[in-house]
Amino acid sequence: MTAPSVGAKPPNLFAIPDYRRGWLLGLLTGIARWLEFLALGVFAYEITRSPPLVALLAIVRVAPYALLGYTVGALTDRIDRKRWQLIGLAAMCAISGVMASLAAIGQATYGAVVVATLATGIFWITDMPFRRRIMLDAVGIERSGRAMGFDNITNYATRGLGPLVGGLVYQYFDAVGVFALNFAVYAICFLLALGFSPQPVPERAKRSGSAPDVSQAETPAPPSLLANGRFCVILAITVIYNLFCVPFIGMLPVFAKKDFALEAAAVGTLASFEGVGGLIGAIVLGIVIRPRGFLALYYTGPMIYLIAILLLSYALTPANTVAALIALSVGGACFSATQYALIYSAAAPELRGRAFGFLSICIGMAMLGHWNAGWLFKTFPSDQALRIMALEGLLPMLAIGVLSVWRGYFGRAG
User: Fold this and answer.
1) Which end of the chain is more exposed for a tag (fewer CB within 10 A), N or C?
2) pLDDT, tens digit, 9 for 90 and up, residues 215-272
3) Residue 50: half-sphere exposure toward Cβ, Cα within 13 Å
């Protein structure tokens, strides 16, 4: 893969209709995702006062990645991605509408929220193999770094805006406001996705029949994927990030209310600082990112994240939490800006769906990470729980770093 030209400008990408629509879709669904993530975490803690039950929502949200990720990834090589993107958005509209109605009549119980969260998790499996795949297919692999860089900027903007909006909406309109707003957002997204170019089923899928065969999709990936040591390192870093970095945000409402006694709007404001550092980092990366540095950045991201959590654990205050959120979100930007492009370039076109399937399974390891975080915060004071979680991640990351330097993985572009 060749490096993007330094002179390439955003209009060259945004002039491509499918990229532009995919970017707007990511903006809107990202806002819906993060406002729901924060608001429902606050909701769960208020009605249960149980950190493990708050963590359970996060576990339920990522469980589909581990359980269905590979199958969905493999099927995307054999189905019309536009059609299934529309089906997913229509389903989210329906679920948000039902939950808004239940909330309005006082029946939005914790159990109902768990069911809605599971549906949300299933929908989010499709973001990479559907929306981002359509975007990258439209712009070409030579501009993948720049294209995903701008998408990453948007992701971090929504990570800042979503919790802020979610906290305010929840404080003034409760859960009914959150679900009603999500219904409106997903309805707009459905109309937007109607404009995607047709995504025809590949010829080889047509020859084998019009309906995808799930049993074939679940067959093991060809050796060329898992025999690639660099590909396995990418997966290992992904596992560590999702086990020990991602759960921090899921526990933020817990220690913000338990240790800082913050209200919902204040928790949302605090969480929004994660988007600030991430947005700054994503903007810089979108300008300077080059394919040869993808894996080094991918590794550096979780290291920054874990070190920030470790330092915070020694002085857990609201001000230090803001500083840690800004710092760790820069690490998160390094990680997420390169993830999709790394996988896209590591696999042949006919194997990309399966490669993303393996990536989804690794993302699904956050299910165990959230369980671990919930147990730590129930068993130990918040500062000790953060310290243990950070050390659990730093030790294997150091081992991966030594292996990658020894094998010379960091300097490669492909």
Assistant:
1) C
2) 444 444 444 677 788 889 999 999 999 999 999 988 898 888 888 888 877 887 887 7
3) 10
| pLDDT band (50, 70, 90) for residue 303 | very high
Give the integer Cα–Cα distance in Å for 174 and 184: 16
Tell which residue, 235, 240, 217, 248, has the closest CA to residue 374: 248
- Dump pLDDT digits (tens) for 305-352: 999 999 999 999 999 999 999 999 889 888 887 887 788 777 777 777
**Which of 83-87, 280-284, 293-297, 326-330 has the weakest average pLDDT?**
280-284
CA distances from 233 to 289, 333, 403 (A): 20, 19, 9
Nearest to 82 by CA among 201, 183, 185: 201
Burial of 105 (0-12, 13-18, 19+ CB in 10 A): exposed
The whole-angstrom distance between residue 173's C-alpha and the CA centroid of its chain comes to 27
Picking from 45, 30, 176, the residue whose alpha carbon sits closest to that of residue 103 is: 176
Q: Please say whether the beta carbons of 12 and 25 come within 8 A.
A: no
How many Cα neighbours within 13 Å face the side chain of 4?
27
Joined tokens for residue 184: 């409106």
* pTM for this entry: 0.72
Which CA distances in Å does 338 have to 84, 85, 238, 329? Answer: 25, 23, 11, 14
Q: 125-138 burial, b if ≥16 CB within 10 A, otherwise e?
A: bbbbbbbbbbbbbb
| Structural domains of the chain ordered from first start | 14-209+222-407 (1.20.1250.20)
